[in-house]
C-alpha cells in the first residue's frame, strides 16, 4: 500500500486529507489490514470446527406451543386482584 492508494480511498470516502494525515493513515493501514486478516482466519477456523464442538450449535428448544392455548387462563385470572372479562385490570399509567 502506498500514498496513492490512501488518496484513492480518501476520494472514494469523500474525505479531504492533509499530507500529514495521509502519511499517518499509511502507517496505520498495515495494522488495520493485519487485524482484518486475523478476523478472517478466526472466522474460517470457527467454521471449519463447527461440527467438532457440541457447544457451538443451537441447543434451545424448538419454538412450538408447549401446551394448549388457554389451559392456565382461568387460574391466572383468578389470582389477579382485579379483572375485566378475560383481561387483568390495571391502573392507567401515563
Q: Largest sheet, described in full?
A: 2 strands, antiparallel
Please compute the radius of gyration using only Cα atoms: 30 Å
Oligomerization state: single chain
- Given the helix and strand composition, which structural class is it? mainly alpha
Order of helices and strands: HHHEE
What is the general shape? elongated
Beta-strand portion reads: under 5%
Strand order of the largest sheet: 1-2
Output the number of helix runs.
3
Measured between the Cα atoms of the first and last residue, the distance is 59 Å
Give start-end ranges of low-pLDDT stretches. none
Mean pLDDT: 84
- Count the beta strands: 2
Helix percentage range: 40-55%
What does this structure look like?
The protein has 94 residues and is mainly α. It has a domain at 3-56. The chain has three helices and two strands. The protein has a two-stranded antiparallel sheet with strand order 1-2. Strand 1 and strand 2 (87-88) form a beta hairpin. The longest helix has 30 residues, at 19-48. The radius of gyration is 30 Å and the shape is elongated.
Amino acid at each position: 500500500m502506498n500514498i496513492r492508494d490512501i488518496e484513492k480511498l480518501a476520494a472514494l470516502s469523500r474525505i479531504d486529507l492533509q499530507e500529514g494525515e495521509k502519511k499517518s493513515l499509511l502507517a496505520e493501514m498495515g495494522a488495520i489490514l493485519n487485524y482484518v486478516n486475523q478476523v478472517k482466519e478466526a472466522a474460517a477456523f470457527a467454521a471449519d470446527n463447527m461440527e467438532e464442538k457440541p457447544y457451538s450449535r443451537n441447543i434451545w428448544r424448538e419454538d412450538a406451543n408447549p401446551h394448549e392455548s388457554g389451559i392456565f387462563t382461568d387460574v391466572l385470572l383468578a389470582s389477579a386482584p382485579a379483572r375485566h372479562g378475560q383481561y387483568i385490570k390495571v391502573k392507567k399509567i401515563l
